[in-house]
Amino acid sequence: MPALWIAHVTVTDTEAYGRYAELAGPAIADHGGVFVARGGRYVQLEGKERPRNVVAQFPSVEAAVECYQSDAYQEALSHARGASERELMVVEITE
After folding, report:
1. Top-confidence residue, 95 or 58
2. Alpha-carbon distance 43 to 47, whole Å?
3. What is the chain's alpha carbon radius of gyration, rounded to the nearest angstrom?
4. Where does the record place the DUF1330 domain (predicted)?
């Protein structure tokens, strides 16, 4: 079953986070991830507001987790740590 990778982000260092974004995109694509939403308009209805919201669709939960654990994504993530506050989850799409 396909899965969604959902990130809610507050960027605190634009330059470092930009390096993360440059590296993360190819790592996500290499694992079959396709961006569905990236920093678009949103309405916060509940919970902590984060001004950047990203959703990518993967072929499966396993593919999304493999992406996160990959060396390429971990290299990208090293630039986001300390440059953002984030929550990230993977949710299986059910029909």
Report:
1. 58
2. 11
3. 13
4. 2-92
Evaluate whether residue 7 is within a structural domain.
yes
Counting every residue written for the chain, the total comes to 95
Q: Show the domain range for 25.
A: 3-43+54-92
Q: 87: which strand partners?
A: 8
CATH number, residue 36:
3.30.70.100
CA separation for the pair 74, 77 (Å, rounded): 5
Mean pLDDT of 4-29: 97
Q: Is residue 34 part of a domain?
A: yes
User: How confident is the model over 28-44, as pLDDT tens digits?
Assistant: 999 999 999 998 999 99
Count up the domains in the chain and report the number: 1
In sequence order, what are the beta bridge partners of 86? 9
